[in-house]
Amino acid sequence: MSSEERDNTEDKLNVEAQWQPNNVAGSFILYAMLNESQFLNPFTANLKQAVTSSRKTVERVMLTLFFIHALRLKSIEQTKHLLAAHFGPLVLGAFCRLQSLRYAIDDISEQPHFDKAITQHYQNICERTELGDDIYYTDGHFSCYYGKYAIPKGYDARRKQAARGRNTLYLHNSLGHNILSFESPTNTTLSVDIETLIGEMKTAFGEVKGKNLFFDRGGFSAACFKKITKAEMYFTTYLKYRKKQAEIDECLFEEVEINIHGTVVKNRLYETEIVRKAYGKLRTIIFIGKQGKQIPVITTNLTLSAVEIVARLQKRWVEENGFKYMDEHFNIDLLTTYETEEAPDKIMSRANPDRKAANKAIAEKKAALNALKEDYATKLEDVKDKDELTIATFEEKEQVLRWQIKNIELELGLLELNRKAIPSKVETNMKDESVISCQKRRLFINLVKTMNYNCEKWLQLLFCQYHPKADETLSLIRHVLIQPGRIRQRGQVLEVELERLDSGVQANTLEKVLEKLNKDNNLLLPDGRKMKIWQASG
């Protein structure tokens, strides 16, 4: 046993009856959210517990992962800096670090009932986050891969170009809480991934009839719309390919407003007549954006008002803000493994490289032709005595230039003729030319990170009830999570006393939140102990 393991043993990490300092005492508040969501239950119920060491049990590994993210450790590598005497009581005992933690994660993700545990987890989350409005947002988040293997390419929105990596599809409710996610190994477009999403939603919800799916232009596809309609769901997205001539006189727009989750949303709207498409009746609602541009929205929902349809789509930014927050605080773009696995046996249609080469050659010829024509026109313009010099004389003088122009026109015609024989798309089997990065470790780690995000968002709802400035609540929560204090064990109750916050306003808010949590009896630990948490008096 190494010296680090000797310091990180169950005996040394037991909480005693006497007060002992704890630098991460504030993070104990998150157990209220974990208990309410029953986060650990699907995994502890379906996965085998490791018997060799308590630090490698499913519960302990998940708590370790959860709380290192809560404390904003950037990677598993940084677990070497954790103090066992302070972090151990937080995760209820001895814990894994570094490579042993990675191995423990792999042991969990490779168990035969891992997929069943994931499914039950999302079923629980869908039930826990049910708001009754049937409004859901979906989008993909792309993470680049910088290794040496032939990983399929996807679209990197940051660099606005194709890049090797992985695309993860997320589903959020109208408050921006993450309720479902899965890996898209083929890195297809959002419109294709939505077909898979519908199946995942049926598994998680049991019934998807009447649910509204909001997404950006990446999901714009008639085939996608048909799949959504077939599932008896509604969709709302932005219209693509609208012509400038279709703009409406601004005097016809009506100014309206609606309250969404306590926020008043104002818009100027105009709705056109309902049209019938292959995927059902379609409404088109146009609103005027912040820059004065007319932005059309399409939806198959015939019951929601136009003002709510537009406001809900605009509120899709809670999802984008969620991606930004998880990227900044939980590093969801982090490459979790260099290991790869076999790509799916799937036929993919992609741009023909021969066609691309032909397009490039044609573009070069056109550029050369334009340059020669400009040269010819310039020389004609520079003729000083146009009355005496006839066109025939000028053409005879510039015979070489005219021959060059005709020669390039002939070559250009041949290139365009040859291009017609080259198909624009080719079909290849992804399995034959690519591998994919291992999914399950990434899926498991990102699932825990989304729970970190959800728990902080759920806490935010509670803090907003007592704090005067709602936009300060998330930063206040992050401050509370690293607030030091002291802990002790009194019978079957773990007592946690936090040092008082410096700000009087923030201290009063925290006081009320802790009173609410204690009153609702949400402060229970996974090992059955009760917890009592308060803030030291001023």
Describe this structure in words.
This protein has 19 helices and 19 strands. The protein has 538 residues and is an alpha+beta fold. The chain has three domains: 157 residues, no CATH class; 227 residues, Transposase Inhibitor Protein From Tn5, Chain A, domain 1, CATH 3.90.350.10; 70 residues. The strands form four sheets. Strands 2, 3, 4, 5, 6, 7, 8, 9, 10, 11 and 12 form an eleven-stranded mixed β-sheet that branches. Strand 6, helix 10 and strand 7 form a beta-alpha-beta unit. Helix 5 crosses helix 17, helix 12 crosses helix 17 and helix 17 crosses helix 18. The radius of gyration is 30 Å and the shape is elongated.
Lay out the secondary structure.
Blueprint: H1 3-7, H2 10-13, E1 20-22, H3 30-37, H4 41-46, H5 58-70, H6 84-90, H7 98-109, H8 114-128, E2 135-144, E3 153-156, E4 161-173, E5 178-184, H9 190-205, E6 212-214, H10 222-230, E7 234-238, E8 254-260, E9 263-271, E10 275-277, E11 280-288, E12 294-299, H11 306-314, H12 317-330, E13 340-342, E14 347-351, H13 353-381, H14 391-397, H15 399-420, E15 425-429, H16 430-433, E16 435-437, H17 439-464, H18 473-481, E17 485-490, E18 493-498, H19 504-519, E19 530-535
Parallel strand pairs: 2-6, 6-7, 18-19
Antiparallel strand pairs: 1-17, 2-4, 3-4, 4-5, 7-12, 8-9, 9-11, 10-11, 11-12, 13-16, 14-15, 17-18
Helix pairs in contact: 5-17, 9-10, 12-17, 13-15, 17-18
Brief account:
The protein is of the alpha+beta class and 538 residues long. The chain is built from 19 helices and 19 strands.
